[in-house]
Amino acid sequence: LPPAALLLGPEGTGKHALAEHLLAYHRVHRSDSAFLHKVDAEKARLVVHMALTAPPGSVKVIVMRLDGSGEQAQNILLKALEEPPEPVRFILLAARPPLPTVVSRSRVFRTGYLTDSQVAQVLAQLGTDVRYAPCGRGTVAGALRAARRDAEDAQRVRGMVSAAIRAAAGKDFQ
Q1: Which of 39, 97, 101 is nearest to 68 (CA)?
Q2: How far out from the chain centre does Cα 57 lie?
């Protein structure tokens, strides 16, 4: 992991999930990571303190959602982002670019929406029946989690309707 990674992309493009996968890939234990949402000035000071006082040893990763964080909070983080102690890494999540000074101190990884065919391919790999995925209808705008949820909901509803029809067909109607 670079000292500071910025996962930058629209809402719903898997930035949080990607951060979790990076932690797992690099075998970062849960006790060596922290997830912070909406970092204000007070939380930013706490993050800087945590970074500067991190014990040596295994890598410590601080994941922060910067959306909604003000200029003051981002400015407080700059020193820690510029020269983090050796065991500390930052993963920053943002839908919109943070301050240019934060961006310049980070390695930027852009995320984006998947195409319909990419959504269908991933859903098939996950074992979801792609016939019920809303691909091509513009309902999920390439957001995989929503597509999978919608496809699974459609499968459940179809199963309930089929069961109701089978039950009704077995009865005599007058």
Answers
A1: 39
A2: 27
Burial 117-133, CB ≥16 within 10 A → b, else e: eebbebbeeeebebebb
Question: The sheet that has 4-8: what strands, in order across it?
Answer: 33-36, 60-65, 88-94, 4-8, 107-110
C-alpha–C-alpha distance, residues 9 and 95, integer Å: 5
- DSSP secondary-structure letter at 40? -
Model pTM?
Answer: 0.72
CA angle 111/112/113 to nearest 5° reads: 145
pLDDT in tens, 51-63: 888 777 788 899 9
Between vectors from CA 153 to CA 125 and to CA 12, what angle results, nearest 5°? 65
